[in-house]
Design brief:
The complex is a heterodimer of chains A (259) and B (255). Chain A has 259 residues and is α/β, with parallel strands linked by helices. Chain A is globular and about 60 Å long. Chain A has a domain at 6-91 and 168-245: P-loop containing nucleotide triphosphate hydrolases (Rossmann fold), CATH 3.40.50.300. The two termini of chain A are 38 Å apart. Chain A has helices at 25-34, 68-76, 108-118, 123-137, 152-163, 182-197, 209-215, 233-245; strands at 6-18, 39-52, 57-61, 83-88, 92-95, 170-174, 201-205, 218-223, 226-231. Chain B is mostly helical. Chain B has one domain (2-254). Helix content of chain B is 74%, strand content 0%. Chain B has 11 helices and no strands. Chain B has helices at residues 2-6, 8-24, 29-50, 59-86, 88-93, 100-126, 138-162, 166-179, 196-200, 203-216, 223-248. Chain B starts with a helix and ends in a 7-residue tail after the last helix. The chains are: A alpha/beta (259), B mainly alpha (255). At the A-B interface, helix 1 and helix 3 of A face helix 2 and helix 5 of B.
Chain lengths: 259, 255
């Protein structure tokens, strides 16, 4: 058995939200002296165990606030878990948002470099992929225009083209396939499929259950930071949709652990 | 460290972008970097030759070298602190090692310092100051100053994320430090002061002396200056690095 690509062991993540908005040293000091530095702890993920092996295509569904995006961020390495362990093997392409890291004053061309480098590529790697990035984005005509003049769809296309210019070991997509025109969306899906054939592991967070049904090999149902179901996509999604249709009973969430 | 090496091209691109922005904004942006310290020097020259009289040969070179050092230090600290905040959207969505932002800021500060050295050399030549081989030591001095500044920047930049008023607070502290560092006055005029030791043993002074020795005194910094400056630099860099690593994980939660 090969080593898993993603391995999470009782992973928990807590957002500490101050009851009062403390934004300055002055306020911090006042609250500290008065002894009322109170934080509300929000456990966005509450003890997740997950093991994903190479080549799996894992979909993640769940209502808003279930912790899907947090999960994507933790696996990407943007957020560090509060407790538990995260192990990820290989190179990650995290696409949590398509407009991240763009400088709107720079041209599309310059942004390809900036963005590629932010993804941890070298200048040489970006240069080698340049033509294919521009070609895939379909923005040849505007590539030397500052992207503040781009439409939001155009920026998203460029973002997707850069982030998927290299075949990663792990691709993480958080609700990013809903942009662009249908033709571009189809091309994105084709590219993801080709990655799949190249052995990429994919984590796709989405509300588009049809998309998940047809592309995933496995589906996670997340609710209030816990795994409700993990299994065959058709079955999990059916159950999820059933639950969503009914009165809001959801899954009885335990009171957030406090410490 | 290995991570940072992987992101080396990103660091250069950030430096390049920073410089481009700085010099593209105004037509004389480039000139301004050189002009601003010169004008400050002129003001100081006027003030100090009229009000205080100190026995200091070639005061312009003395003052200008102090001011160049200080400008580099202060601007780098303030921009390091803003660099994390300014790149918040990136830090929330991409797993980039966060050190690259303060690091790039300090590097672009060094480039600016290099530009600003040009008028200093012009003045050195114009005033017939003795130019020695000691000037070859200047790059080492600048490296020490840069590492010291990087350490301080690493230590302070996460704080600027956690508390919004830190930048202003540091601004005030820096002003105090400016007057407590012999940038534009000679040590002799503060010798009698009861708090002389504060100035004498200030870590910033040791860094400044190592920078000024090769320029003004035409000598390689003596071992006493050098060892003190190196010790201070290593301590600040280590503390800054550890502090940064400790708080880095919490940074994305604060935006």
């Amino acid at each position: 058995m090969t080593e898993p690509v993603i391995q999470l062991d009782s992973l928990a993540l807590c957002y500490r939200l101050p009851k009062q908005r403390i934004g300055s040293i002055k306020e911090y000091f006042i609250h500290f002296v008065k002894g009322n530095l109170v934080y509300e702890r929000l456990w966005a993920l509450q003890g997740l165990d997950l093991s994903v092996t190479a080549g799996e295509f894992v979909g993640v569904i769940g209502p808003n606030g279930a912790g899907k995006s947090t999960l994507a961020k933790v696996i990407s390495g943007v957020l560090k878990p509060t407790r538990g362990e995260r192990r990820v093997r290989g190179r990650i392409s995290p696409i949590l948002e398509l407009t991240t890291g763009f400088d709107f004053e720079l041209t599309g061309y310059e942004n390809i470099f900036l963005n590629g480098l932010l993804l941890g590529r070298t200048r040489r790697e970006v240069k080698a992929a340049l033509d294919s990035i521009i070609d895939f984005s379909g923005l040849e005509e505007f590539i030397h225009t500052p992207i503040r003049n781009y439409s939001s769809g155009m920026v998203a296309r460029l973002g997707f083209s850069i982030a998927t210019a290299w075949v990663p070991e792990l691709l993480i997509l958080d609700e990013v396939l809903a942009v662009g025109d249908s033709r571009f969306v189809r091309r994105c899906q084709e590219r993801i499929k080709s990655f799949q054939e190249a052995g990429t592991t994919t984590l796709l967070v989405s509300h588009a259950s049809e998309l998940l049904r047809e592309s995933c090999s496995r589906c996670l149902w997340l609710e209030r930071g816990r795994l409700v179901a993990d299994g065959e996509p058709g079955e999990v999604i059916d159950r999820y949709e059933e639950a969503m249709r009914g009165p809001r009973e959801g899954v009885a969430a335990e009171a957030p652990a406090s410490s | 460290m290995k991570e940072l090496y992987r992101y080396r091209d990103l660091i250069w691109t950030l430096v390049e972008r920073d410089l481009k922005v700085r010099y593209r904004r105004s037509a004389i942006g480039f000139l301004w970097t050189m002009l601003q310290p010169l004008l400050t020097m002129l003001v100081l020259q006027l003030v100090f030759s009229a009000i205080f009289r100190f026995e200091l040969r070639n005061y312009p070179v003395y003052a200008l070298s102090g001011i160049l050092f200080w400008n580099f230090f202060q601007q780098s600290i303030i921009s390091s602190m803003n660099s994390l905040k300014g790149n918040a959207p990136i830090l929330q969505k991409l797993p980039v090692p966060m050190e690259v932002f303060p690091l790039a800021t300090v590097i672009s500060g060094v480039v600016n310092l290099a530009f600003a050295l040009v008028p200093l050399f012009v003045i050195l030549l114009a005033t017939g100051h003795r130019l020695g081989w000691s000037l070859a030591f200047l790059p080492v001095s600048i490296l020490i100053a840069a590492l010291f500044t990087l350490g301080a920047g690493l230590l302070l930049s996460p704080l600027a994320v956690f508390f919004s008023d830190v930048v202003e607070l540091v601004g005030v502290v820096l002003m105090l430090c400016f007057y407590l560092t012999p940038c534009f006055y000679p040590m002799s005029i503060v010798q009698r002061h009861p708090f002389f030791w504060v100035i004498r043993y200030s870590p910033l002074r040791s860094i400044l002396e190592v920078f000024r020795d090769p320029i003004y005194f035409s000598k390689v910094p003596p071992l006493s200056h050098l060892s003190l400056a190196l010790t201070v630099t290593l301590v600040v860099l280590l503390v800054g690095w550890l502090g940064f690593r400790r708080s880095a994980d919490r940074i994305p939660f604060y935006f």
